[in-house]
Give the backbone structure.
Amino acid sequence: MIPAAVLLPVAGEVPLVTLLGLGLLGALLALDETSYAQTWFSQPLPAGVLAGVVAGDPLAGLAVGLPFQLAVLGNLPVGQTFTGEAVAAVVAGVGGTILSGYHLVPPTALPAGGVADARLGWVLVGVALLSIAGSWVVRAERRAHFLWMQEGHRGLRDGRIGRFDVILLRCLLATALRGFGLTLIWLTALILGWLPLLERLPLRAQAALGWLPLLAVPLAVGILIDRYGLRICWRCLGAGLLLAALLTAFLR
Amino acid sequence: MAILGYNDDGYDDGTGGASRPGEGLSQRLQLAVFLRSLALQAAWNPQRMQNLGLLVALLPWARRRGLRLTERRRFCRRYYGFFNTNPYLANFILGGILRLEAESGVQGPPEDLLRGFQDSLARSFASLGDQLFWLGLQPALLLLAGLLGLLIGPWTVLGVFGLFALAEFVLRYRSLAIGHRLGLDIVELLSRPGWHRLIRWTQQASLVLAGIWCGCWLTGLGAGAAGRGDLALVVALLGGVALPLGLRKRCSGEGLLLLVLLLALAISCI
């Protein structure tokens, strides 16, 4: 299995600039997610690639971001329906993977013999758990927004409209700090706690983890069928399958 | 053209760049409102949702209008109630509100007119925007970017989203002016069939791309699984597709990923 030496970075070798860069990226993407602009760079796929760029391995960012993105394709960032805080989890997942010395590549095919790399699956499980945990922090932040919004009633009474600007800036700052803090906390938890656990798992579990990233594609197809209804799906899916056959023949 | 027919006696001439009835938005004001409208959801809260974001986006207009204390307080009260819509289409409404404000003088538009305008448009744009952006365009763009990322390289992912960001900014900037020009006639914009056509196209594009993904997955995995039987592949495909269908939106993506571990465990036993 994977030797411990590859899993843990040697103490003192974790570059602080990279950690700071990942934290800042987490802050910026947390702002982008709902608070400012919403450009979709905060979606797991581009966020993973960006984290990979900051940590020095964009391909690893694609490897982690892509299957996670496919699995959460049905998550809507709409009002109260949000279900996870994927930004900090993905940035930390990609950063932790690269800083731990993993060299992950996107899962496009099973290797000969049919056993895929378990490490990516283990990272994905960690990212999913952290995303769920982070959603509670977002809920707390939104409750704070409500309290601050109530402070705005003073502005309604005294007519000082500058108050509203200050409250909004406070909300933006809180979101940025949440992104920064969560990214660094999750990063530490992954590098020191989660990733080294993989080698202690039984072989059967490791084989199952190898399949996890590969199952993201059928999961995404199921999510879309669930969303749009089978009646409008089968024709378009069939056209896509045909195009895939042509694409594969062309690439060969 | 005064669409509401109010007199503009109370209109302050020293507006310092604020729009006047019948005129378009000044560039300065449009830019200021646009930049603030990007933070529409910054103070999102479960009770009044985007109310603070809406008010802060409209403040440049109030400042340039030079309102007196009582008018300022009235202005803030008008926009501090409940407000929620799709952020990408919100600027149509903001532009319309600025038009109503400009045409109604310092007293502001009648409360029931403003409330009706704001609420009905917010609901309609929320519904359209959610279907178009979250349910149609987003999955299509993510599937396309992922495919290009695998075929060409990770940088193309950033290119795709860079283009989306640019298009989104142009839409949000221009929709302010369009909303302002149309005023109450925004309703006609909503009734155009093009919206629903666009929604259908984006959803179909998502499905075609999902089909391409599925085909590539079968080809890639089929090659790797050769020698250990196709049963694992069939179970993976059917099980993976059936899981979200069986749960009927009751589970988040993260939950699905954790649940699919059980399927992975079953496949690894085959």
Summary: Chain A touches chain B through 110 residues (CB under 8 Å).
